[in-house]
Amino acid sequence: MKKLSMSLLALGMPLILAACNGESVAEGQASEKVRTIQVTTPPTSKNLSWQTIEGEILGYEPDVLRAIDEKLEGYEFNIQAVDDSAQETGLKTGRYDLNVGGYYPTPERKEQFYVPEEPTGRSLIKMYVKKDSDIETLEDLVGKSMTPFTTGGGTLQVVLDWQEENPEHKLELQESSGDIPYAQRLKEINTGKYDAFVGPANLGQNEVIEELDLNVRDTDPIYVGETIMMIYKSEENEQLAEEVNQALKELREEGTLSEISEKNYGEDIFKYEVTK
Q: I need a surface site. Which of 80, 103, 123, 136 has the fewest CB within 10 A?
């Protein structure tokens, strides 16, 4: 923890020694350098990470970053809310040191960046259906309609992988090149335009359902994946990556990550086993 505790004796001795040796206190303090780490997180992905109109950065991942920062000596995290494209470009060029954004681990990411072995969290993909619906699994979607999937998105890939493994259950999938707001997707379930919306459960869907008083519920997760953080590859960041990994391990074992999940999502995402 970043704590400073001294007795009066311990505080006084350096001053006496400095005076005797003709050294300034400032010179002694300057030797204890703290490195500022430029960290980015999404600005509009409530409850994963978002920025209020007052500029406050909130959500699961910002809270995890602050908990890590508290554990690390010699570092100070400068957390910034940055759009996805700027996040990606900035990390590739070294403008930023560390990015989070609900990322899934991929071989390409592990090759290009430092990726701590310890995950930052879990990504739960659930289905959103009418409250009286009997849909509980992907198999139940045979012959049913789903809201369009974002082309190239992670959720679409999860469903395509399932379809490949279960060819006897043919699903009708639509794709959209645009980013359809989650509120609109949920409204279309409520009106009966579609039977199900399949998507990540960490973006405030249940709050939208409650605020709009929709006749919609969520299912148990159909997929549970791990999320990661990515660190710019440089010689000085190699040690940072190791220390961040250790901090994440401690936070998980202490139950702090579960507490942060309960605070932001209303449930402990770590109670779910990762899909093999």
A: 136
Residues 97, 80: one domain? yes
User: Which candidate, 124, 156, 126, 154, places its Cα nearest to that of 224?
Assistant: 124
d(CA 44, CA 98) in angstroms, rounded, equals 18
Tokens, residue 32: 């204890």
Please answer whether residues 201 and 127 qualify as being in contact, where contact means their C-beta atoms are separated by less than 8 angstroms. no
**Helix pair 256-265, 60-71: axis angle to 10 deg:** 150
Report residue 272 CA to chain centroid gap: 16
Whether residue 211 sits in one domain with residue 259:
no
- 91 with 148, same domain: the answer is no
Q: Is residue 260 part of a domain?
A: yes
Identify whether 129 is part of a domain.
yes
**Token couple for 267:** 């449930």
> How far is Cα 151 from Cα 176, in angstroms, rounded to an integer?
6
Q: Do 63 and 37 share a structural domain?
A: yes
The predicted structure's pLDDT at residue 2 = 54
Mean pLDDT of the chain: 88
Q: Which two tokens stand for residue 132?
A: 């009286």
DSSP helix/strand/coil, 45: strand
The CATH code of the domain that includes 162 is: 3.40.190.10
Q: Which domain holds residue 264?
A: 32-121+227-271
Nearest to 173 by CA among 142, 134, 216, 131: 142
Question: What is the C-alpha to C-alpha distance for residues 160 and 173, in angstroms, rounded to an integer?
Answer: 9
Domain count, the chain: 2
